[in-house]
Specification:
Number of helices: 8
Number of strands: 7
Shape: globular
Oligomer: single chain
Number of domains: 1
Strand order of the largest sheet: 2-1-3-4-5
Order of helices and strands: HEHEHHEHEHEHEEH
CATH architecture: 3-Layer(aba) Sandwich
């Protein structure tokens, strides 16, 4: 009940740091958001914030795209963040990294000093832990207050995509405890 009281009435922004239409990280973050009983959960798709690849010359010539400002405005109006990171070659997805790069040009405090729960998953045993580690260590430098993280290994064994539920009971309990901290 203690965690429930913390999130009552809060607005949480949830998204996957992936632009894949079949994103397993989107499935995970959607499930995690469903556990936030009593909170108002907003979701977004980073595909809606697609911009040209960041380049200093482009910024000098054209300024910062409106999508970066729109993304930051979404962060500004919520109380906390719930993000699940896709791992591409050991790092952020190109789509997320580009969005983040543009947003950081508006100001260093991209995460707006919001409490954050960070997640990751992958089909294999690594659970996208490398990118989660990168996100955890970088977030405080960009105004993020990471209150916890969870990497979910072997997504297709741990999660039932048909029901949208995390079927690994130990991971499910860890996730429930984690999101209750928001």
């Amino acid at each position: 009940m203690e965690g429930m009281n913390k999130i009552m009435g809060k607005t949480i922004l949830a998204f996957a740091a992936s632009n894949s239409s079949a994103s397993i990280n989107r499935q995970l973050v959607t499930y995690a958001a469903s556990l936030l009983h009593g909170a108002d959960v907003e979701t977004l798709d980073i595909h809606d914030f697609e911009m040209p690849i960041y380049r200093h010359d482009r910024e000098e010539a054209d300024g910062i795209p409106q999508q970066a400002h729109d993304f930051l405005a979404r962060i500004a109006r919520v109380d906390a963040l719930l993000i699940s990171f896709a791992e591409h070659n050991g790092s952020y997805s190109a789509a997320f990294k580009n969005l983040f790069d543009w947003c950081s040009r508006v100001g260093r405090e991209v995460w707006g000093n919001k409490p954050m729960v960070l997640l990751s998953t992958s089909p294999g045993p690594g659970a996208a832990a490398r990118v989660l580690g990168i996100a955890e260590s970088a977030a405080p430098h960009f105004g993020g207050n990471v209150i916890g993280s969870l990497a979910v290994p072997k997504f297709f064994e741990s999660f039932d995509s048909e029901t949208g539920l995390l079927v690994d009971s130990e991971l499910d309990q860890q996730l429930r405890e984690l999101v209750a901290k928001l």
